[in-house]
Specification:
Strand content: 25-35%
Shape: elongated
Distance between the termini: 54 Å
Number of helices: 6
Order of helices and strands: HEEHEHEHEHEEEHEEEEEEEEEEE
Radius of gyration: 22 Å
Helix content: 10-25%
Low-confidence stretches: 1-39
Oligomer: single chain
Number of domains: 2
Structural class: alpha+beta
CATH superfamily of the largest domain: Glutaredoxin
Mean pLDDT: 89
Largest sheet: 11 strands, antiparallel
């Protein structure tokens, strides 16, 4: 009996410890795949890219093409703020070490439906100056071959094709670059500079202010949303008129107007609908785009009921006005300190917007 009780106590201690253990690999990672396995198991060798549905900036790459090269594989999806803030480093590494034997391969594995469109990916890659080889992985075949779980995720393989390092999410840039330098040297490259690249992300690529981020990514579709607090209960997959409370608590959000709440996104059926969110962060972004008609959608944002002025993001003016022309991440707020709780509101002056997620930085 005593032995059984001791065994039970030990099991409870282990369970409680596991429940509160920090998820180090998930730090600063805003999106986790719906296709994730329960336990991560990185492949030992560089998997094939044969499952790619297309390529950008190159002909299809094979294992033979990469033999003898140090290969950095980066999984990304173009509306992901975590990837956007990592990308300046990857671009810099691709340029600095290309002549030393580094090959960077970006694997675009989409999160949202609009990111499965190859033409959308091509346009985004061009606008964002992603000029290294890109495998379009719209069916997530390459994602599954790597058993990947995150955006962004970096895997670095040596010249023999063995995966020697991985990094999930933002950060550890100097460590990642040191690994690249080491593996290039092991492969016989000479004159490899050991100083790190100097990167200053601008606009949407600027480094986050993690010390002031008290709001996390919020998905708006019902499959993954939380903290929805409109005065009306959510009606799924049907048009419904919502009313917003006058004030929200931190990280609550609400709708006002005629909306349809879908699995992945919310869609505005009539003009003058709005989204309200109470947040605490320097930056606020919204992933959104025109509905299937493709017609531009005008909008205006307010912060605590007033135009943003100097706190406006790159996609709005000082009065808070902007226009949605394509599906992507829009930067709506960039504040200066002090950062405090604020109430954000975006009103859409035209119908036909689809909104997917709100992110912060």
């Amino acid at each position: 009996m005593i032995a059984n009780r001791l065994l039970l106590i030990a099991i409870l201690v282990i369970a409680i410890g596991a429940a509160f253990a920090p998820l180090a690999e998930e730090k600063n990672v805003s999106e986790q795949s719906l296709f994730a396995t329960d336990e991560f198991d990185a492949p030992d060798a560089l998997p094939s890219f044969a499952g790619a549905t297309g390529w950008i900036n190159t002909q299809p790459l094979t294992a033979a093409d990469l033999r003898g090269k140090v290969v950095l594989v980066e999984f990304w999806t173009y509306s992901c703020i975590n990837w956007l803030r990592t990308e300046p480093y990857v671009r810099a590494w691709a340029e600095k070490y290309r002549d030393k034997g580094l090959v960077v391969v970006g694997v675009h594995s989409p999160e949202f439906a609009f990111e499965k469109d190859g033409e959308n990916v091509r346009l985004a890659a061009k606008k964002l100056s992603v000029d290294y080889p890109i495998a379009i992985d719209s069916g997530h075949s390459v994602w599954r071959a790597f058993n990947n779980r995150y955006w962004p995720a970096i895997y670095v393989a040596d010249a023999e094709g063995r995966i020697r390092y991985h990094q999930f999410g933002e950060g550890n840039y100097e460590k990642t670059e040191a690994v690249i330098q080491q593996l290039l040297t092991e492969a016989g490259a000479t004159g490899v500079a050991h100083d790190p690249v100097v990167v200053e992300g601008r606009g949407i690529e600027a480094a986050p202010d993690w010390g002031d981020v008290l709001s996390g990514e919020t998905y708006l579709g019902y499959q993954r949303t939380e903290n929805f607090t409109s005065l009306d209960r959510a009606v799924l997959e049907k048009a419904h008129y919502y009313n917003s409370p006058s004030r929200l608590r931190l990280n609550q959000w609400s709708l006002s107007g005629d909306w349809t709440i879908g699995a992945e996104a919310i869609a505005l059926n009539q003009a003058k609908g709005s989204i309200t969110y109470r947040f605490h962060a320097r930056d606020l972004h919204l992933v959104m785009g025109p509905a299937s008609s493709g017609a531009p959608v005008r909008f205006r944002i307010l912060i605590d009921g007033l135009p943003p002025g100097g706190a406006h993001g790159i996609d709005v003016d000082e009065q808070g006005y902007g226009t949605i022309t394509e599906p992507r991440l829009y930067q709506l707020v960039r504040q200066t300190r002090p950062i405090v709780d604020r109430q954000f509101e975006i009103e859409f002056l035209d119908r036909g917007v689809e909104a997917f997620s709100i992110t912060f930085g």
